[in-house]
Design goal:
4-stranded parallel sheet, about 300 residues, alpha/beta, TIM Barrel
Length: about 300
């Protein structure tokens, strides 16, 4: 069965289309090896942790330091998603990472919005939006600016904010003021939580009133948390292939997507980082169908959940 695809947890810097990386590198004045270039932008199954996984983002980040490259990467990504059968996508990124060469936050966001909008012109019937990411490690000044940027461009390409980055040592409760401000400004938000097998992070995200949680696989460790996810109608944006690479679930534990689904938790499938993880949404679907027995009607329901929970 072919599905209408919807990906609402997709990082721009981790999803730069491989075919345009040489062009982006030339634009940026960066020399890349002609052989085995893909190894600089992808991780394998030998990755040992989220921290090691995130270290792979240094090269993609270096390519996205100009308006031209931000525009081209976003436009091409949208076009590729459309060709694969997507009718909806939410693309997220942290503006603070694109300031190495002095770009202002407004210029960064406008370049990404422009690329998205021009990509959509060649993708009839598709919808897309941008989420701006606050980072777990700060700095506070950058996170504050990101909230303000989201408000400035809300309804003009930006659809909400996220809190991303390493989890260990960065309690989500410390971000309460940011999300309180976002709520006061009517900015929708999702929160990365439970990607590192810490269910307490998921509880903190729930306590901050989120209606969507990025990953959230650690929820399975707490029946109380699972009960809250169901009662509060919170969607988990699950990314199976990425989770395997980051060792989000210990190797002696079964990946919990089947159990969470059967318990009644709303879940949608996503890619997280298409290029870094060498994935696409069809690969994610194939994995959960082959290994966890998800039927076509269940996959279709996940796509419906993604559409219903989207901030677009």
């Amino acid at each position: 069965m072919s599905f209408t695809l919807r990906d609402i947890h997709l990082h721009l810097d981790g999803s730069i289309p491989m075919e345009i990386i040489p062009e982006l590198a030339e634009n940026a004045g960066i020399t890349l090896p002609k052989e085995h270039m893909e190894k600089l932008f992808t991780v394998g199954d030998n990755c040992t942790s989220l921290e090691e996984y995130l270290a792979c983002f240094s090269h993609p980040t270096d390519l996205l330091q100009t308006e031209e490259n931000l525009y081209l990467a976003t436009k091409t990504l949208v076009q590729n998603l459309y060709k694969e059968g997507h009718d909806l996508a939410e693309i997220r990124f942290a503006p603070q990472f694109q300031k190495k060469k002095g770009l202002a936050g407004e210029a960064i966001v406008e370049a990404v919005i422009g690329g998205m909008q021009d990509g959509l012109k060649e993708a009839p019937g598709m919808k897309a939006g941008i989420l701006l990411c606050l980072m777990s490690f700060g700095p506070a000044k950058e996170n504050e600016e990101t909230v303000l940027l989201a408000k400035k461009y809300l309804g003009h390409g930006v659809i909400g904010i996220d809190r991303a980055g390493a989890e260990n040592g960065y309690p989500i409760r410390d971000f309460a003021e940011y999300f309180k401000k976002a709520s006061s400004l009517d900015i929708p938000y999702t929160i990365h939580a439970g990607e590192c097998w810490d269910e307490n992070q998921v509880q903190q995200a729930i306590d901050l009133g989120t209606k969507r949680i990025g990953h959230g696989v650690a929820s399975i460790k707490s029946p109380k948390i699972v009960e809250q996810l169901i009662k509060k109608d919170i969607l988990l944006e699950v990314c199976p292939i990425s989770n395997r690479q980051t060792k989000a679930v210990p190797e002696n534990e079964e990946y919990p997507i089947r159990r969470l689904w059967d318990m009644g938790v709303k879940i949608c499938l996503n890619t997280d980082n298409r290029t870094v993880s060498s994935t696409n949404l069809q690969k994610e679907i194939d994995l959960v169908q082959d290994e966890f027995g998800f039927e076509d009607k269940e996959i279709q329901k996940m796509m419906e959940y993604a559409k219903a929970a989207s901030f677009i």
